[in-house]
Design a protein that fits this description.
This protein has helices spanning 5-14, 33-37, 39-48, 54-69, 74-84, 88-102, 107-112, 120-132, 135-192, 198-212, 214-232, 235-247, 251-272. It has 274 residues and is mostly helical. The longest helix has 58 residues, at 135-192. The protein is elongated.
Length: 274
């Protein structure tokens, strides 16, 4: 039993079995009760309930380590964390994980049913903790890893924030010039009755187009934004976007160092956990 084909294949390989084909059976995957009974309610909940923040994941890992280290059973620990959680999404996830555990599913498999919350590295570390009997130590290491990851993300965001603000300010300035400044000078240029230089005519034509079809440009930008976001979440899009980030002047070096630091720390955690 597993939430997806990758998890099942991993379990089989650990037992020395090489699967040739894995197919999902209908109705066997454990789902949230609200989503299973009412798909519309589940979709609305995903859009309206705030996502789980990095701070909540840090608290979850640290508190679960403390409770397990103190000898509290896993189900009782999750129940306490569910009651003390401040975010509604985290409460829902913990409730579903508890139901999976009560039905006999392993902790790593219960967490894997929420792969948008717990990434593959998190799940792999939990699986290692289950196999070695050092689950409390693994959650402490995960807390340190997440804390380091949050710190690195903040450093990268700080590095790229200034160039991003400069680009936004330039975009706004060009829009104001096209919509308000150039039209004011257009009548003055037309009163000259002389042939204007090509750059000036291009600016006037661009301004007239922006004023006349600004709404169309806005729609095009919104559509381009949605299209870019959808493309960025494809495997090829993620690869190309990652290459672009690494090649950005100045900020690319910081992104590269942050990725290497995260890799080295994660690899060290995996080796240390056996």
């Amino acid at each position: 039993d597993g939430p997806d084909a990758d998890s099942v294949a991993l379990l089989l390989r650990e037992r020395g079995v090489t699967p040739l084909r894995i197919e999902q059976t209908s109705g066997e995957v454990v789902r949230a009760a609200t989503t299973a009974n009412n798909p519309l309610a589940g979709a609305l909940a995903r859009w309206t309930v705030p996502a789980i923040s990095s701070t909540e994941m840090l608290l979850f890992s640290r508190q679960l380590h403390t409770l397990l280290r103190s000898g509290v059973p896993i189900l009782r620990a999750l129940a306490g964390l569910q009651e003390s959680a401040t975010g509604e999404r985290m409460k829902q996830v913990l409730a579903q994980v508890r139901r999976s555990l009560e039905s006999g599913v392993e902790l790593s498999m219960s967490l894997a049913q929420h792969n948008r919350v717990f990434d593959s590295f998190f799940l792999a570390m939990v699986r290692v903790g289950e196999m070695t009997g050092r689950l409390d130590e693994v959650f402490l290491q995960l807390f340190k890893h997440l804390e380091f990851d949050v710190y690195m993300r903040q450093q990268v965001k700080s590095a790229v924030r200034y160039p991003m603000f400069v680009g936004i300010a330039m975009f706004i300035a060009i829009g104001v010039i096209n919509v308000m400044v150039i039209p004011a000078f257009a009548t003055v240029f037309e009163s000259f009755g002389a042939d204007l230089p090509m750059p000036t005519r291009i600016l006037l034509a661009t301004s007239r187009f922006t004023v006349s079809y600004g709404w169309l440009l806005g729609l095009a930008l919104v559509a381009a934004g949605f299209g870019w976001n959808a493309w960025r979440h494809t495997p090829e899009g993620r690869l190309q976007w990652g290459r672009f980030l690494l090649r950005v002047p100045v900020a690319g070096k910081i992104v590269r160092k942050a990725m290497l630091a995260r890799f080295a720390r994660g690899f060290a955690m995996a080796l240390k956990s056996g």
